[in-house]
Every structure is written in C-alpha cells, then in structure tokens.
C-alpha cells in the first residue's frame, strides 16, 4: 500500500488498526466509516479519503459531530478533480490532474483507432498535491 510505504520512507509510525476499509466507494460509505471511528477513545489527527465521494461523506460526518476541519482533524483525499475546491471545506487532494488524465485517454483512443490493436499498455502518471483548507500542521516535524 502506498500510504504505508510513504510513512516508512519518512520514518513515521503507522498502526495497521488505523487503516480502515470503508467497504465501498460512495458518500455513505465514508460517512458511516467515520461515524464508527468517532466512537473510539482517541481521534485521529488526519483522515485520508480514497475518492471525492468517500471524502464528501467524511466531511459531512465530521461537521455533524462538531469536529472542526482542519483544527481538530485534517482531511485529505485522492482524486484531484475541480469539485474538490467547492466542497463544504475546500479539500486538499492528491491525484493526477484531470486535464492530464483526459489528454492521456484521448491519446490512447487515437492510437487504438489508428492501429486497430494496441495490446496491453501501462502508463505511469505522476500525481500532484493541491493544498486547500482541509489540512493543518499538527506538530509532527515534516522535515
């Protein structure tokens, strides 16, 4: 898992019990999962959502429970799409820019039409971090 590798690379501790599978990919799955997390004795300092939809549910649940984003809990999401800037709390996100993703898709379609058969291809795309108001420094030295 990418999160675990990054944490290890930077010498940051990670407890496997803090990695939670929402069991689905929609708004409700994010909402219910965070509702369950809020029942625990200690709250996380940050939550990473796997998509726009999941993160919408995460934000709604935190707000309904009077948890301040990012003062109490930071939220970051995967999916670097324009809608992230227009959520209840403008969401910090990481992902491939939609323009880059769309250009790659169009390029692949053109190749398919021109060559009739492409075979299996893998294309690596580099995600970017877009910082917005949903994350705050929580005392861990980022150096």
Q: How big a fraction of the residues is strand?
A: 5-15%
Biggest sheet, open or closed, and with what strands and sense? 4 strands, mixed
The computed structural class is alpha/beta
End-to-end distance: 22 Å
| Overall spatial form | elongated
Strand order of the largest sheet: 1-2-3-4
Oligomer: single chain
CATH architecture of the domain at 2-97: 3-Layer(aba) Sandwich
Average pLDDT level: 88
Rg on CA atoms, Å:
18 Å
Summed up, the helix count is 4
Query: What is the CATH homologous superfamily assignment of the domain at 2-97?
Result: Response regulator
Tell me the number of strands: 4
CATH topology value of the domain at 2-97: Rossmann fold
Low-confidence spans: none
Can you identify the CATH class of the domain at 2-97?
Answer: Alpha Beta
Order of helical and strand elements: HHEHEEHE
Helix proportion range: 25-40%
In short:
Helix content is 35%, strand content 11%. By secondary structure, it is an alpha/beta fold.
Describe the structure.
The protein has 143 residues and is an alpha/beta fold. It has a domain at 2-97: Rossmann fold, CATH 3.40.50. Helices cover 35% and strands 11% of the residues. It contains four helices and four strands. A four-stranded mixed beta sheet has the order 1-2-3-4, with helices on one face. Strand 1 (46-49), helix 3 (52-64) and strand 2 (74-78) form a beta-alpha-beta unit. The longest helix has 18 residues, at 98-115. It is elongated and about 60 Å long. It comes from Tigheibacillus halophilus. This is Substrate-binding domain-containing protein. Keywords: DNA-binding, Transcription, Transcription regulation. InterPro entries: LacI/GalR-like_sensor, Peripla_BP_I.
